[in-house]
């Protein structure tokens, strides 16, 4: 029988948790400073964590760590960590720990349970919808651009139309992933764009591009250099719908990688929202590793 015992002191778990995450970030291509920044964000996101030992007939077989935080007025639970020691894996303890975490969070008023994965979790979280992935690639050499595709700086006149289109696309991505309602997504888009590019085209360390082929605009790009030490973040590399299916997506990625190197960074990072399998497949085929995958499931109110 699987039992759970909440720890009074989670210091050892915290040390091991951070060691494992730093190793995972480094394996994906992040440098030490960037990996540490990712870990800091992980700490902030987790909040106050409760750690429980997983036991079988009194013997410790693993651990599960959970937290409940306020997310824009809604209580959300989070499985921060879940692991079963190798000799005891595959005996049902993982599912029991997941079920315990769901019940623990629901009892504290959470209406949603999130989990962040840094490696595949088998079938354990198949019932949790993929809300998004953070992807990254270390750029070891300048990419070769696709023949006929060029990129130039965006003009001020183009920027105003572009930012309105980007907000609409961003809202659509959030809603499609199931993360927020449309009204919540619109408010988030307004906040995020105001925070990220307060000076528009003049915002420091940002690159805004227009992609062209045969004298026609085919898409746009938006990148933030120094998002993490040595890492450029690709907020958007967009190919217009009527120009898709011609290899321009790969061309946009190559331009983004060139801009990353020109901006003084050596790795390019993206977020791809759940439900956008086309982008996920493109990132996989171009060598972008999953740094983190976020999933969630709705929770019914606790009967307690």
From TrEMBL:
UniProt cross-references to Pfam families, sorted A to Z: Acetyltransf_1
Lineage: superkingdom: Bacteria
Domain N-acetyltransferase: 149-304
Enzyme class: transferase
Organism: Streptomyces gibsoniae
Keyword annotations from UniProtKB, A to Z: Acyltransferase, Transferase
Protein name per UniProt: GNAT family N-acetyltransferase
PANTHER family given in the database record: L-2,4-DIAMINOBUTYRIC ACID ACETYLTRANSFERASE, N-ACETYLTRANSFERASE
PROSITE patterns in the cross-refs: GNAT
GO molecular function: acyltransferase activity
InterPro entries: Acyl_CoA_acyltransferase, GNAT_dom
